[in-house]
Every structure is written in structure tokens, then in C-alpha cells.
Amino acid sequence: AELVADVRRGLAAGEFELHLQPRVRLSDGAVLGAEGLLRWRHPRDGLRLPGSFLPAIEQDDVMIELGEWVLHEALRLLAAWRREGRPSWQLSINVAARQLRDPAFADRLEQALQQHPEAPPAALELEIVESSALEGVEALERLLARCRALGVGVAIDDFGTGYSSLAYLKRLPATVVKIDQSFVRDIFDDPSDLRIIEGIVALGHAFDLEVVGEGVETVEHGALLLRLGADVAQGWGIARAMPPAQWPDWVAGWR
Ligand code: G
Ligand code: G
Ligand code: MN
Ligand code: NA
């Protein structure tokens, strides 16, 4: 309860930041955009990572307020990118299950897009985890269909770690599947991870999804993902999440 109050205070005080972790195309290294990762510049604790505060507020209404801030911040960044002549860079944001259970989620998204008319809706992507569908895949399917109708993309995050991945692939109107970093990281040590990645790539492409490999920590990981047919790479081997102010320099220095 204390943490919830502190998050509300931090929101009002402008302490949250959306850092950017690049996503690049495996075939040629082109920068495709970034995943937005939440950070809290806490006046007492310094820079706090989501793992230190999200789990404790995930079931609280403040999660919706924080998610709303993330959405607006992402649209502000997308609008700026467009003004800078980069309308095709995509920005994905993580959406908590609590937000998806909010009956007003799609209305809020629609309003946010209207409030940031310069942000191209197609450049925004919502990352959802499979466990968000635990309370019924039908409701989630309808909600995501509305988001897609607004032009926004949908990524299934941490793919392969949930319980009914295949049913969700079939039902959810996704555009992207993100291979969980646990499979990618051990790809050289564990032959079964390699087979799992091959399987996810084949499945993703069969559903016309873009396949993103997460946890790309080295050049070798990227090279192997490319050979396995994945489309996009994200991970520390490319860059760690950075404050938006560092993004232009990173892009200029990439390759
Ligand atoms: O940034 P980091 O790698 O520490 O992220 C840890 C976890 O927090 C990841 O599972 C990520 O999906 C989640 N996360 C990061 N930013 C957000 C956010 O803005 N909203 C939600 N709901 N989860 C986030
Ligand atoms: O669950 P999600 O995929 O949104 O989580 C993203 C999290 O993974 C962030 O906390 C980010 O810091 C972390 N991450 C991103 N790239 C790498 C990587 O190459 N290796 C490891 N170990 N973690 C990573
Ligand atoms: Mn994610
Ligand atoms: Na992930």
C-alpha cells in the first residue's frame, strides 16, 4: 500500500521514464525501432527497474494509471520520431494483464491516439504476455481486435513460456511473436532450445507474424537466429535500454 502511494506520488512528480531498447532487422542490421522499458528515477533509491515495483502494484488500479502514462509517453516519442523524419520506426510497450482487464482499455487507447495525432498508430505495438488470457481468450481476442482496428500492432511477449501458446497463436490477432530470451540465451548449450526456436519461427511465419528474438547477448546469437530464420533481434549484444536522450547518438553510431 505504501508502494502504491509512492508510485502515485512519483507519477505526479514526473519521476518515471521510458527507456528504449533497440530492435534491429537480422538480415541487414537496420534499426526498426525499440521496446519501451519503464524506469523510475526515485529520489531516494536511484534508478529503479520494473521488477522492484511492478509485481507489488500489478493488481492495483495504479497499474492502469502507470500504464496510461507509458502509453502517452510512447506516443510522444513516436510523434517526435515522425517529426524527425522517422515515421516507420516502431515502438512497443508492455501492457499488464490488469490493464487489459480494464473495460475502458480500448477507449483509452483510441483517445490517446487522438491526442497524439502525429504519432502513426501503425508504429505503436502492444506487448502482451500469454497469461493475460487466463481469464478467457475470447475477451482478450475481442479487445485486441479493437486495438488492431485502430491500426496498432500486437506482439505476444515471452512466447513459449506460457501454458497454451498454440491456442493463443490461433485465436489472438497478433502481428509479432517474441521468442523468450531464456530460449535464445542458452541456444549454444542446449540443443532443445535450438529446436524450440526453429519451431517458433516456423509457427510464427505460418501465421504471418514477424519473429523477434529477445536476449541476443552476442553477435553469435544474432547470427544463429538469422540462420534459424528469425526476422528481428533485441538484446544487450545490440544495446541495453537507454534514456530517449541517448537514442539519436546510438542510432548514429550503430554499424
Ligand atoms: O526493463 P526490464 O528488463 O528490467 O523489465 C523487466 C520486466 O518488466 C519485463 O518483463 C518487462 O516486460 C516489464 N516491463 C518493463 N516496462 C514495462 C511497462 O511499461 N509496463 C509493464 N506492464 N511491464 C513492463
Ligand atoms: O519480459 P520482457 O521481454 O518485456 O523483458 C525485457 C527484459 O529483458 C528487460 O528487463 C531487459 O532489460 C531484459 N533484457 C533485454 N535484453 C536482454 C539480454 O540480452 N539479456 C538479458 N539477460 N536480459 C535482457
Ligand atoms: Mn517485453
Ligand atoms: Na520477453
Written account of the structure:
The protein has 255 residues and is α/β, with parallel strands linked by helices. It has one domain (2-253): TIM Barrel (Alpha-Beta Barrel). Helices cover 43% and strands 21% of the residues. It is built from 11 helices and 9 strands. The protein has helices at 2-12, 54-57, 62-83, 97-100, 105-115, 137-149, 165-171, 181-185, 191-206, 219-227, 247-253, and strands at 16-25, 31-42, 46-48, 90-94, 124-129, 153-159, 176-179, 210-213, 232-233. Strands 1-2-4-5-6-7-8-9 form an 8-stranded mixed barrel, surrounded by 4 helices. A hairpin with a 3-residue loop joins β2 and β3 (46-48). α1 runs parallel beside α3. The mean pLDDT is 96. Residues 21, 37, 94, 157-158, 181, 214-217, 235-236, 241 line the site of one guanosine-5'-monophosphate (G).
What labels would you give this structure?
binds manganese (II) ion; 11 helices; 255 residues; alpha/beta; single chain; TIM Barrel; binds sodium ion; binds guanosine-5'-monophosphate
